[in-house]
Structure formats: C-alpha cells, structure tokens
Amino acid sequence: MSRQFGASTNGTVTAMLTNAAGPNTVVGLGIGVPTTGLAKCALSTAIQTNAAGSTPQLSATVDAGNYCVVVYDLGTLTSAIDFSVTLVYP
C-alpha cells in the first residue's frame, strides 16, 4: 500500500514502521516518487524489515516535491495485515 506526501523544502524524510502484525512479520518499506499505473510509487530506496518500533528504519534526502511511502509484501504473507507507518518530512 502506498501513500503520497509533499515535502515543502529540501531535507530528510524518515520512515518508521511502528506496527506490523507481529515480531516475525517481514515486509518491505520504501520511499519513492508517485507514478501512474499499478505500482503507484517508483521506489528510490527500500529495505526489508521486521523491526517495527519507534526509531526510523529508513531515511532519504529529498528536494521539495511530491513523494510516496510504501509498505509491501515480500511474498511471505499469507493474509492481509494491519500496519502503521510514521513519516517525518520537511
């Protein structure tokens, strides 16, 4: 699932996966730019994580403009999960 956000100035975006179904749930977390089509977000940086918590797992330097954050299945999920992401951006 992707969500768009807008950076009003140059700076750093941080993303924190704050909840993801359980400690053994591994998902992808990425930051990119919005696109059309099925993906809706062209990732510029991404990680695999099962470390949901309150510290940033991913950061990216951005210019002012539109961006997106994505949480995605790496092919290991057997059903939909609940998750939460916290973004901090300029």
Written account of the structure:
The protein has one domain. By secondary structure, it is mostly beta strands. It has strands spanning 2-7, 11-20, 27-34, 41-49, 58-62, 65-73, 83-88. The model has no long low-confidence stretch (mean pLDDT 91). It has a 4-stranded antiparallel β-sheet with strand order 1-6-3-4, with no helix packed on it. A 3-stranded antiparallel β-sheet has the order 5-2-7, with no helix packed on it.
Summarize this structure as a short list of keywords or feature phrases:
single chain, 90 residues, mainly beta, four-stranded antiparallel β-sheet, three-stranded antiparallel β-sheet, 7 strands, 0% helix, globular
Distance between the termini: 22 Å
Largest sheet: 4 strands, antiparallel
Strands, count: 7
Q: In what range is the share of β-strand residues?
A: over 45%
Helical percent range?
A: under 10%
Order of helices and strands: EEEEEEE
Structural class: mainly beta
Q: How would you name the oligomeric state of the polypeptide chains in this document?
A: single chain
Low-confidence stretches: none
- In spatial order, strands of the major sheet run 1-6-3-4
For the CA atoms, what is the radius of gyration? 13 Å
Query: What would the average pLDDT be, to the nearest integer?
Result: 91
Number of helices: 0
Counted up, domains total 1
Global geometry: globular
Topology at a glance:
Blueprint lengths: L1 E6 L3 E10 L6 E8 L6 E9 L8 E5 L2 E9 L9 E6 L2
Antiparallel strand pairs: 1-6, 2-5, 2-7, 3-4, 3-6
Task: Write a brief structural summary.
By secondary structure, the chain is mainly β. The chain has strands at 2-7, 11-20, 27-34, 41-49, 58-62, 65-73, 83-88.
